[in-house]
Amino acid sequence: MPLDAICMQAVVRETATQIENTRIEKIQQPARDQVILLLRGGRRLLLNAGASQPRLHLTRQLRDNPAQPPMFCMLLRKHLAGGRLLRLEQEPLERVVTLTIRAVDELGEQSDYRLILEAMPRHANLILVDREGRIVDCLRRVEGDLTQARPLLPGMFYHLPDPQPGKKDPNRLTEEDRAALLAQGQCDTPADKFLLDHFMGLSPLIAREVAFDAFGEVDAPVGRDPAALLDKLAALLSNVNEG
Fold it and tell me: 198 φ, ψ to 5°?
């Protein structure tokens, strides 16, 4: 099942109750794209920034660590080891999860760092940000150019990824938004494609499930009953937001 923003919301909600206000005892990087935080109480939090399966979850699996820790692992140990994980939060309907960690900085003072997992396939990354909002370093540094408009380099201020153009947050639809979507929905576009084209946070699988719930089949055109499709999406989101 794809870990889209909706599924990620459930993972974050469940995980946060188990790890918030827990001290970080060890930090490991068993693979290039994987960081594991060993927390007090024996919990192991996996942060995977791989291009194919970026994700975050607790794990019991033991992984072999390299004899020489990678540079990013050493950086995390320097700034975060012994710190307390205060909060685990997700940006609304985005696959961006922030761990706020209070640790002792280079001046010997308590400082709040943010370890940010951007779990977007092909653009996944793990970024350490200081209390001023500047990037300390990234798992993958990104140079800015004509094809990559969002550079990620040490010393730069961190900014969230730009939202997908033309897509709306389905949790914040106004009556005007709904009316405009109903007008656009009088067409033969497949219902699942219509949802993917107009809303953020949905995976193709979730979109097909909503279409099936509305019409009893996954390939029905949205024009059959666009209001029913929007109602089914709202009902799904209501269940998700209520946990």
Answer: -115, -10
DSSP 221-243: BGGG-HHHHHHHHHHHHHHHHT-
- Which residues lie below 8 Å from residue 28, measured CB to CB, with a gap of 6+? 35, 36, 38, 63, 65, 69, 73
List phi, psi (to 5°) of 179.
Answer: -60, -40
Give the span between the Cα atoms of 229 and 196, in whole angstroms: 12
Span 137-184, pLDDT tens digits: 999 998 876 455 689 999 999 999 887 778 888 888 889 999 999 898
* Helix 5-19 and helix 226-241, axial crossing angle in degrees, nearest 10: 10
Write out the two tokens for 175. 């009556």
Q: DSSP letters of 100-167?
A: EEEEE-TTSSEEEEEEEEE--TTS-EEEEE-TTSBEEEESS-B---SS--S-B-TTSBP-PPPPPTT-
Cβ atoms of 27 and 77 closer than 8 Å: yes
CB 80 within 8 A of CB 27: yes
pLDDT in tens, 89-147: 999 889 999 999 999 888 788 999 999 999 988 889 999 999 999 999 999 998 876 45
